[in-house]
Design brief:
This protein has helices at residues 2-59, 62-65, 71-76, 113-120, 157-163, 168-187, 189-206, 221-256, 275-284, 302-312, 320-323, 358-393, 399-431, 443-453, 455-461, 479-496, 555-565; strands at residues 84-89, 94-97, 123-129, 136-143, 147-154, 260-264, 270-273, 326-333, 336-344, 350-356, 439-442, 464-468, 474-477, 502-510, 514-521, 570-574, 580-587. It has 595 residues and is α+β, with helices and mostly antiparallel strands. The chain folds into 4 domains: 2-163, PAS domain (Beta-Lactamase, 2-Layer Sandwich); 257-356, Beta-Lactamase; 361-428, Helix Hairpins; 433-587, Histidine kinase-like ATPase, C-terminal domain (Heat Shock Protein 90), CATH 3.30.565.10. Helix 1 (2-59) packs antiparallel against helix 6, helix 7 (189-206) runs parallel beside helix 8 and helix 12 (358-393) runs antiparallel to helix 13.
Amino acid sequence: MRIIATYTKKWLVYILSFFLFFTAVLLVSEYYHERKFRLEALNEKLDNFAGLTDRYITKFNISDRKDFTGLDSLVDMFPDQTIRITVIDYQGDVLYDSEVSNTATMENHLMRPEIQQALSNEFGTNIRLSGTTNFKYYYYAKKFGQYFVRVSARYDINAKKFIQPDRIFLLFIVLFFLAASLTIIVITDKFGKSISTLREFTLQALANKPIDEKIAFPENELGIIGQDIIDIYQSLNRTKEELMSEKAKLIRHLNMLDEGIAIFSKDMRLITSNNHFIRYINHISDSRVFTGDEFFRIHDFDPLFSFINKYLNEEGRTNLADIQPTYEINLSKAGKYFSVKCIVFPDQSFEVSINDITRPTKRKILKQQITENIAHELKTPVSSIKGFLETILNGNTDKARTMDYLRRAYSQSCRLADLIHDISLLTKMEEAGSLYKIEKVDLEELILDIAGEIEPLLKENGIKLDLKIPESLLIYGNSGLLYSIFRNLFDNAIDHAGKDITIRLENYMKDDDFCYFSFSDSGTGVPDDDLPRLFERFYRVDKGRDRKKGGTGLGLAIVKNAIQFHKGDISVKNHAGGGLEFLFTLAKDARSSHE
């Protein structure tokens, strides 16, 4: 019964509130209705004066005679001597004003608000201060045959009281309902305290503030319910904080992963994703992607979407916990390779992971190519050595030919050793670059040493050497790799550029971070179509450069990798004066990238 009584009080407050609201609307409506009625009464009164003035003008032909002074007699007979009469023609000129003797001094009245209203309506009204008499008037203007008649009543205290409705009744109603409301508030005090306490708790909960331990509900049914709500809320809040902590750990973990991860709900809405996921799908997509929700409009993933839809429809909802469906595809886009995996969870949410496998994939492809090239390159010297030795062992050669075959076998074995050395050097740079020792190297001294080593070859081929290297050009790098860079460039020019040429090596610029070099020859050059492939392993130009002096085909590949080891870059072009020109940079300090 007490619960029923409590809710009865509550509904009583609701009913009273609605009653008060609609009563207030009614009172306001009545207030404006009465005010409108009083205005209409005032307008009717002024309209009588305007009509009387028009009839007087017509009866005595005042308009035709252009003498409106006769209206003074009419105005004197008005019972209200504060009434002001003004006659205005259609051009706005004042023909008569009961309070102004010389109307010629009055300004044009055509744009007065009440005149403008009278032009398009039955009459016009306005309340304002008169610039002529300096009194505030209520103006009433009406259009007649050839003129406007404007009747003005002074807008003083009496006029205001006449227009405004009687407020005593309204005040009585307001006081009555205030007293009734106060009575109801007192009667329902306990119910109000419970509501107030519950409201305080709600505000603290909405603001995510700690719940005040001092909050106490009255000992009634609503108070007990309120206390139960607080207990449940605090329990849920503790659980929420624990979940938020675990979620933060999960997000930090996802962002630390190298693969892109996104988790979606069963209605394909994004729950969470890491930065790599957005970056990877942007690389795969043909258009710009800003959020993980746009993942489903990328057609490259259509096979994956078919798999997902299979397990999100009615047929695929059974036994998901047992089979744990997974799917994997590999995608290739713009020179990059990605492995995309998906797993569907028992609640039909699913996870999509994208892993960038470009490096291992390219390395696998490269190793396959290298293996094929190595097999091809090894085949020639091994076959030659085998053939020479078999001929010698068969005893079908004399001493002179035997010595010639042995020299050729030795030459091929040297070429084989060079090939193995170059392959080992490239492999070490790519897979164990951190094992190279970084130390201070004098490039001038190193280059001069190489020049001394190749001097016999230069003389044999009639090659001139032009070196422009500053003294004590010091950098931090690996001396062995730096030696390989310059030695291979020199050997490449000597072996392939031709005879009677000039080789130039110039350190043409340096800044705080890099040294800039130009290596060129005045030889035959290479076709432009072959330039992009000069740094490929085992690539040889068929035209313009012969192979009579052999070589492993790895020299320029070693040059490029060694320069990249030293944080530099290299490009090649046909020199304007003939031959090739290599432009490359070497970092002054290669330690930071290999520590």
